[in-house]
Each structure stands twice: as structure tokens, then as C-alpha cells.
Amino acid sequence: MKHWIPIISGLLLILTQGCSNSVSPDEYMQWVQKEGNGLRHKRTTQNADYILQYEPAAYKALSTPENTYRSAGNTEDQAKKYDAMHHFMLKVRPQTPLNLNDKSLTEFLAYHLDDHVRFVSGRDTLKQTVMYHLESAGSITPYHRILLAYPKMDKELSSLKILINSNRFDQKSLEFTIPQQALSENQSLILKMKQKEYGSPEKK
User: Fold this and answer.
1) Ordered domains of the chain (ranges, CATH)
2) Full-model pTM
3) Residues 14-59: tens digit of each pLDDT
4) Nearest to 59, CA basis, from 35, 88, 19, 100
């Protein structure tokens, strides 16, 4: 019986590696949204809860209503629309309602917080947010959803950072880092997702 143990272990290893060579669109979406994988981060201050989600082009493509069937072909075509930019979804949930010089919190987040947000890619810092859009008000959902987008300045993968300087809404500065390793793993999973639909070159 002892002689069979290495053989069984080897077979299990081969089966496990074979299964890991392909990823379904749903599995990819879940991976992106899982905080421990590096593309999603949470921070809490005395004034608010923050969630920053990095949204790769493939993730945004899979989330679009047009990509109903979530096929690799549809995803690849849709992803081209988003590939030139780094996209982030920032969610802010205030601990208590605030009054900022008689302006509503929604107005402050939509028009003034932009002045305090910085994007860092590698060694480059971009002070101007290219796309800044408040998608929904806190009166409807607990979180204010803010879409951020920045041009891809580096051809090579490098870590990304979103810095929020202290401001009238929140006196605490915040830093969110998307590590280079997480971005590399994201690219690997996209390739595996294509392999699941098209098959590996050897199978063609």
C-alpha cells in the first residue's frame, strides 16, 4: 500500500494543476473582488469607511450589460474600450452626516474631493484625475460610489497607488496600493480564462 501513496499523490497533483490552467469568467470576477488578492482594499477612519476596487479592463468588460454571454470573444472586444485607462471604483460611507459650509456631502464628494485625490504609477504622480464621476448618492445606498480613471503611463507593469490627502471631509490621509504582483496575477488569470473557452494551442 505504501508504494501506491506516491503514485496517488502524483496523480492528484497533475489533476490539480490541470484544473488550475483554466478560469471561468465568474471565477475571475470573484478573484478580482476578493480583498486578499490585492485589487480590493478597505480603510476606516473616524469619519468614514472606504473601499477601493481596481477594475481591470477585462473585469469592466465582463460587467457591461452588452456582454450578456460573457464569452472570451465578447470580453476581449469590450475590454479594448477600457484598456487605455486604469479604472477604480471608490466607495465612501460616512459614519455620520456632515455639513460642509452648508454644502451637501454629495456635492463635496462630486466636486471637491477630486482636488485631494492623487494617482501614482511607478515613479510617476498624476495630480489631475482624468475621469471623476459620482455614480450614486448616499441617500439611496449606504455608500457613495465614485468612478476614478487615469491613463496608463507605463508600458511595463508597476504598482499603482491612490492617495487621498486630508480635507474638510476627512482629516486623515489615506493610501491604497495595488501591488505589481496582483496586476501580474490578473493578466495570468485573463490568459487562463481565454484558454478555458478556446483551449490550449496543443488542443487546437
Assistant:
1) 28-203 (2.60.40.10)
2) 0.79
3) 444 444 578 888 899 999 999 999 999 999 999 899 999 999 999 9
4) 88
